[in-house]
Structures are given as structure tokens and as C-alpha cells.
Amino acid sequence: MTSLLILNGPNLNLLGQREPEIYGYETLQDITRLCENKAKSSGVQIQLEQSNHEGVLVDLLQAAQHVHAGVVLNAGAYTHTSVALLDAISSVEFPVIELHLSNVFNRETFRHHSYISHAVLGVICGFGAYGYVLAIDALLRHLEGA
Ligand code: CA2
Prior knowledge:
By secondary structure, the chain is an alpha/beta fold. It contains 5 helices and 5 strands, in the order βααβαβαββα. It has helices spanning 20-23, 28-42, 54-64, 83-91, 130-143, and strands at residues 3-8, 45-50, 70-74, 96-100, 122-125. It has a 5-stranded parallel β-sheet with strand order 2-1-3-4-5, with helices on both faces. Helix 4 links the parallel strand 3 and strand 4 (96-100). Helix 2 (28-42) runs parallel beside helix 5 (130-143) and helix 3 packs parallel to helix 4 (83-91). It starts with a strand and ends with a helix. The mean pLDDT is 97. The structure holds ligand CA2. Residues 11-12, 14-15, 17-19, 23, 74, 76-77, 79, 100-102, 104, 111 line the site of ligand CA2.
């Protein structure tokens, strides 16, 4: 069965507790449930991981090789700072979708630049938690060759 990794970066464990006007009211647990329901209805397996540590995110991306067919990555603030994550994404053979809950382009200018965009299949942002559903759909459509 096709397996996908849903990988969340720093501070996303705090979702739903602060700044709901930017990130929505859903907690990471709500997003987990949303992704699990989407995976079930799509007939795929998913693994969900969250880490506040850049190196752990790199390790999880490397470990996904030959295990997962694709990755949905919300790299959080590391999006805007991390060449290490860019290099990790460049080194793997599976497609990665960059995801953001908020529309990073109508926020502070430092959020307009993403290091990881250079190596990803595509970017989804601004649709809140529903973006994860869109990203899983987009990955599966890509993997089916559609
Ligand atoms: O919009 C997104 O999903 C972001 O990746 C979220 C990151 C931010 O640095 C990116 O620019 C855009 C921040 C996640 C922090 O999440 C919080 C959750 C609750 C309270 C405060 C921050």
C-alpha cells in the first residue's frame, strides 16, 4: 500500500493554543485526525511526525527513502532559514510538497522567501488545516502520474 509521511516542524505542536487568527483553531491532533481520515478514504497509509529540531527533520526525511512514496512537509520557520532541509529534500528521490497553514505571502516579508521551495514538487499555503488534505490529494495525483 502507498505510504506517505506528513512531517511538521517547529512550534506546530502548539497549534490551536495561540494566534488562531493566523493558524486556525485546529490543534495538531485535529490535523492528525483530518489526515488519517483522508488517508483512509484514499486507501493509503500515513505516518505523522513533528519535531522542533532541524536535524531530526533531516533524519526523518532521510529515513523516509524507500519507505514512503512522498512527503507533505510543513517545515515551519525552518522554511525561511534552512539550507540543511533544502539539501535533505534535494537528496531524496520521492516528491515533497511544501505546506503552510497561513498565506506566507500576505505576512512579513521574511516569510516570503523559502529555501526549500527550490527542491519541492509544489507549494500549498493559506488554506489552514484543509491544506493537508489538498497536499495529500496533490501527492497521490502526482504519484498516479495524472
Ligand atoms: O503557516 C505555516 O504553516 C507556517 O509554516 C507556520 C510557521 C511559520 O514560521 C511559517 O512562516 C509559516 C510557524 C508555526 C508556529 O506555530 C505556532 C502555533 C501556535 C502558536 C504560535 C505559533
